[in-house]
Amino acid sequence: MISIVIPLFNEQENIQDLLKEVTSSVINYRNYEIILIDDGSTDNTLSIISSLNKKNIKIFKNLENSGQSFSIHKGITQSSNNIIITIDGDGQNDPKDIPKLLDFFLMNNDIDLVGGIRLKRKDNIIKIISSKIANFIRSWVLKDNCNDTGCSLKVFNKKIFLSFPYFDGMHRFLPALFKGYGCNTSFIYVNHRKRLHGKSKYGTIERLLKGIRDMVKVKKIIRNKKNIK
């Protein structure tokens, strides 16, 4: 029924607790699977997840650090179900919000993507301000009606996702891609938690510049799209 895709890079201190929370949040749903993609971790993340012995967990490994979009795309292509849930591996997304997004998705057949909106960000002030600026510019340019595309907690249609041309960074533009392809999206407020272990993998300036380049790329993709609905 559902496939939960979790990209991981150096999350040895977070992954076990996160998996317990994720499993608890979806235990009442039939036919779920959890797909873990180790993105070239240099700590013990891979050995920890490799020791898991559960039939509903699939594990994949990137030969080198290839980025979040690559890992998510890889996990989705290996999934068995058409309903995809994505969540970060750092524990800042709250798995308790998964049923809220998933139930809304299941009850609204005309919705193709449900995204989380972090109500109270638990990041440092520089990251919060830069994110708000980036979200404003992106929403104004791409008209995706989403003021927090950076929230990784999303539920969406696998078939539609795989119709998009792949590019590095695409995971940050899913609301714009779905809407640009004529699909319906909706957004729900979700909890956001402090990172307890490890550190953020993104640099603010570098991410901003790449975001601008990717925004231009998304514009071109949408302009040249083939309608899928």
Provide an overview of this structure.
This protein has 229 residues and is α/β, with parallel strands linked by helices. The protein has eight helices and seven strands. It has helices spanning 15-26, 45-50, 68-77, 98-107, 125-142, 158-161, 174-180, 204-223; strands at 2-8, 32-38, 57-61, 83-86, 113-118, 154-157, 185-190. The chain has a seven-stranded mixed beta sheet, sandwiched between helices. α1 (15-26) links the parallel β1 and β2 (32-38). α5 packs parallel to α8. The chain is globular, with a radius of gyration of 17 Å. The model has no long low-confidence stretch (mean pLDDT 88).
Explain the layout of strands and helices.
Blueprint (H helix, E strand, L loop, with lengths): L1 E7 L6 H12 L5 E7 L6 H6 L6 E5 L6 H10 L5 E4 L11 H10 L5 E6 L6 H18 L11 E4 H4 L12 H7 L4 E6 L13 H20 L6
Parallel strand pairs: 1-2, 1-4, 2-3, 5-7
Antiparallel strand pairs: 4-6, 5-6
Helix pairs in contact: 5-8
